[in-house]
Amino acid sequence: MTEPLNLLDPKHYEAVCRPAAEATPLPNWCYTSAGWYALEVERVFMKVWNYVGHGSRIPEPGDFFTVEITGALVIVVRGDDGEIRAFHNSCRHRGSRIATGDGNCKALTCPYHTWTYGRDGALLATPLIEEDEHLRYADLGLLPVRLERWAGFLFVNFDDTAAPLLEWLGDLPETCKSYAPETLVCTRRKVYEGVQANWKTHFENFNDSLHIPFIHGGTLNRQNVSGRARRTHEEFDGQCVVHFTQHKGSRGLLEGESGFPTIDSLEGRYQEGTWYPCILPSTMMAWTIDCMFLFELWPTGPESVDVAIASFFPKDRTTRPDFDELAEGYYRRLDVILPEDNDAVEQQQKGLRSPVSAASRYTHMETLCHAFDNWVLDRVLD
Fold first, then answer.
1. Residue 142 per-residue DSSP state
2. Which class would CATH give 10-45+168-381?
3. In this predicted model, what pLDDT tens digit does every residue of 266-283 receive, in sequence order?
């Protein structure tokens, strides 16, 4: 399938916009084209609420972590006043990146000319250069990035005119209320760097149950068979796509593993299965009866993505003397499943790259993939 000269011509995408039972997936170039990816960066990632991490990653003043959102460098730091702030990770002198990774700092110091900033972003020192009327410290603090939070989950937005985060999330806070999300802490985060696939393939894979008997035949599929899981797509207000799977037991463990008791606050339907809300464009959650795990997609190019998986438990579970032992069972499940998914999407990417790829049809079980594709199209073509 040849990439067209005019990527923004709606005629190229008419088949994608049909009702789900008649629709095709996005054209191949939406997964391989540098030009299309640049449009996604400009019109999606630079305009939306991007999840960057959880407040429990930086519990103490001076704790920080850094992220890269489709090329935009951001540092998230807890200040002396306890507030969490986000800044562009770029020195106001000559633009150098200031920090990498995560850690704790007394101040943020640029490695190039050692301009130094406080944990609130204020410029504190410019070695060998004195402050004067042409270089005013008050005017040269780190540039802030808009940051808002829900229940400890931190999101940034590069568009100062965007609607508030809670409007973006819609029904999600109310849907997840029974899990007491404000009590959760992140106990492990593992990153798979350089997965050779377009970021959208992983989002679609998360919302595709058809692959489970084949890609996860000896792992997840054993739960589906033994627990007779029943999956439904949920109507949802907000920038999310959501499905619910009714089943017995925890989806945080592999078949035969034992773990923590059910979260104390769960009632009714929440005790009977797992919610899978996917916050557009690149964050996928799984709220099951005893924990939550969260997938993060960090696109690094049209055909590469870093994938992170974070595990969350109620804080009172983490103080149990047997926490580390029991938590290992949950980590094992993720350490088995995610490599299987990574391999699947890499194989898909190789096929999509082929000039004679034959991808042409969704099925009635892939309505969330269809909804996601059209969400992306709406924003890129708008």
1. P
2. alpha beta
3. 988 899 999 999 999 999
